[in-house]
Amino acid sequence: MTATRQTARQDMIDVIARISGKDGDHRTAIPGLSIHRHSGDAPANCAAYKPSLAVIVQGAKRVVLGDETLIYGASDYLLTSIDLPVLSQVCKASIEEPYLSFAYQIDTAKIPALLDFLAQGPVSAPASPRGMTVSKITPDLEDAALRLLRLLDRPDDIPALLPLVEQEILYRLVTGPHGHRLRQMATAESQPHQVGRAVAWLKEHYSRPLRIDDLASRVSMSVSSLHHHFKAITAMSPLQYQKQLRLQEARRLMLEESLDAGDAGHQVGYESQSQFSREYARHFGEPPLRDIGRVRRTLVARFAGEAEMLSEG
């Protein structure tokens, strides 16, 4: 790594460490930009990733998509081009060198205008259409990302300069090694675009019984084509995707709204409590009651540790 890039990386570390202040996931004054800090390895956490650019500046993270596992760390970025339910876990962090990263949501509605500006020809099919990929960050993208973070120190500049920085980030992504994923998602009537419409319907109606032929008809695809392209892009079948949405929402309801397992399972569409418990344990590694209890104990211990550090300070 050149001295210039080392300086850029250290500047990113300094900004995120200073603004985050403490461990956790933090929203910022910039819409769609969040920063993340963790001082130790954490248990796996379910998450719904939206189209976004995620950059790790220190540490490493593991993301499980379907049956696939992606690991990325400093000098890498994660590009997500479609809404995807995943399991994520910080896997390299310490008090001395905490995990530091940021994620910036991509406004896919702005991509078609950028493509018109670039006046590019037809989009060719990528070697892999997967809606999530890890790549090494380029100097140009890193430079634009650093300028995005620096705006947090100059909030008065955000309204005027954010659109310019955002357009450059989109440009670097669209013209980068994996830009075909974004270009295809933004191309009307392309198969990835149709899968995106199917995903949007599943997210809105995840608690309803799923009829594949009806879903295929809604997005103007044959059943076989929907199955093939949906799995190629999301690493899941439509039914598996719906199941992950249901299980993640049920877990949220139990953790944040204190619903019991029966009510949570019923609310997300399960008619059988035993089926819900089996699928929950298969996905999260433990039955609902045990998993929720463990997560709550972890949170209590974390808050107690932070309170003790504050009192000592």
UniProtKB/TrEMBL annotation:
The lineage of its organism: Bacteria, Pseudomonadati, Pseudomonadota, Alphaproteobacteria, Hyphomicrobiales. It holds the Pfam family HTH_18. It comes from the Bacteria. This is AraC family transcriptional regulator. The keyword Transcription regulation applies. It comes from Ensifer oleiphilus. Keywords: Transcription, Transcription regulation. The keyword Ligase does not apply. One of its GO terms (molecular function) is sequence-specific DNA binding. Residues 196-294 form the HTH araC/xylS-type domain.
